[in-house]
Amino acid sequence: MSQAASSVVVVPTTHHKTESPTRRTIRRFVRHRLAMAGLTILVLITVACMLGNDQLAYKVNIKMGYANQPPGAVLPVIDNRGKPVLDANGNETMQTYLLGSDGTGRDVLSRVLVGGRVSLIVALVSVAIATLIGTFVGVLAGYSGGRIDNALMRLVDVVLSFPTILLLLVVAAIVGPGLVTLVIMIGAVTWASGARIVRGQVLALREATFMEAARVVGLDAPQMIRWHVLPNIVAPLVVFATFGVASVIIFEASLSYLGLGIQPPTPSWGNMLNSARSLTVLERYWWQWVPAAVMIVLTVLAVNFVGDGLRDALDQRATNDR
Amino acid sequence: MGAYIARRLLISIPVLLGITIIVFTFTALAPGDPVDALIRPEFGNNEAMRNAIIAHYGLDQPLPVRYLRWLGGVLQGDFGFRILSGQAILGEIGRAFTASFALMGTALILGMATGIPLGVLSAVRQYSKLDFMLTGVTFLGISVPSFLLGLGGLYLVGLQWDLVPIGGMTTIGQPFDFIDFLHHLALPAVILAFGYAAIFLRYTRASMLEVINAEYVTTARSKGLPRRTVIGRHTFRNALIPIITIVGLSLPAMIGGAVVTEQVFSWPGLGQLLVDGVNERDYYLIMGITLLLAVVVLIANLLTDIAYGYADPRIRYS
Known about the structure:
The structure holds two protein chains of two kinds.
Chain A: H1 3-6, H2 21-31, H3 33-50, H4 54-58, E1 73-76, E2 94-97, H5 108-144, H6 146-160, H7 164-175, H8 179-189, H9 192-206, H10 209-217, H11 221-257, H12 269-274, H13 279-284, H14 290-314
Antiparallel strand pairs in A: 1-2
Chain B: H1 2-29, H2 34-38, H3 47-56, H4 63-75, H5 89-124, H6 129-143, H7 146-160, H8 178-212, H9 215-222, H10 227-264, H11 270-279, H12 283-311
Helix pairs in contact in B: 1-12, 5-6, 5-8, 5-10, 5-11, 6-8, 7-8, 7-10, 8-10, 9-10, 10-12, 11-12
């Protein structure tokens, strides 16, 4: 996912009209139709997830025999003690469960939306952690060079040569599952490719003339990094982080599907799939897992589209700039 | 070549040792231990028995001693025993590895056999309808995790259409039958192969496009060589090196995808064994599988390097 982003240092090109790089990037991105479609889908999904009803997502309805009802089922509203809520005339108030109810009578639609919140937050926070670690290690390795560089890059090789999901499984076995541990542990095992990208950029930057000039002017290492290195590695990092979100959504889904990620009753797209490990649910109660699966696929596709668009828009070498 | 391989293998020994030390330390420091799982609740909290069990498994020894004992055993082919079932770990891993290898190997061959030729085709007919269609399918194949695809496949092909068995490697309670095995293998292998093919197709296409406009390709075409030769010998052969690199680099991701997909199909492979080990807190089992996978990845990297030599005669190992 990082090949195109990793290679080249930004060399500002002279234009007939002056246009700031940021504006040009935005203009190119807006023109990328698939990326804009992806962005629209992402915004819609995020808004929908924020509108999710927490009450309905957690309220267990099993005693009343309203479990496993198909999409469109009309069920009475219950209060926190599990009693039906009555209106002024003493009739039960009814509510439509658009996507049916799950094995404990909870509203599947609400769980998909609230679960989406959990999945998206896990993805964003762990990618932020991975990006921070990756940047730190990459800058340290690339800027120091020599033995430190060598040791850090061997570490990166080892981490990258292992299937991430297996690392996550082993770490999950050790620290136990849970939201916070999940986020930290995904961040802690997915930083390596980011570090490799950043190091490559920094190595190339070290040879740039403006870096030499900055050194001559007398900037010390922290200043160099702050003013000259970091601004020049933002582009590949943005691309890394975007594709990272897509892969973390899949990691969360895989781990929670195996029962080692987000633990019930908290919903997430992954642990809603966990119910499909039962063949009865898989076959007869398809509405309990298909919505989560569709959301995962849609989100990952949308994020990948956006990532492709960003990569093209941020690619300073691009010649066909129409 | 022989010397090169020997040297590479020697270099990988410290890496392997490092991995085992890290995994061992972390697993030993983890909260919760297998002894709890061994003591039957009806005996209550019997301190003496607990200590006896701990001593029996050597868990009262300091960490370095436990590690060296484990390592000594492994070097003699003794990986220890499953704590709950008492089965020899080596045998269990062997069985699971065979199952995983059969599944992944089949999927890899299927994926290569479809992905690479279609990638060549897609590049040769760049911007054609076929190219757009294949690129779209590739995008799907890369974005959709294979375990989700597996769930969908199991639902449609296994349950709704009832064409294949719904899980496992063979029909339980029957003697091994090759046709029966293939019947069980078909769906998981095809699902995994779809994801692999997408990776192969994407990189073959990109790599072919890098080469297809090179001057020597134009020369080959203009001196009247048949299209087959131009594409097969002049373009594809030169496009192979990046493909090999990518395949080598993608291998961990491929194994990772297979691990979760195995669970969907109750395939009795390494993925399932590892998840069992995680759930039982059986650290020796986790260690054994980790070590095996590390060896597999290292060997795969070595094979990748050797494959370079065949793809590009300029690369010589000495």
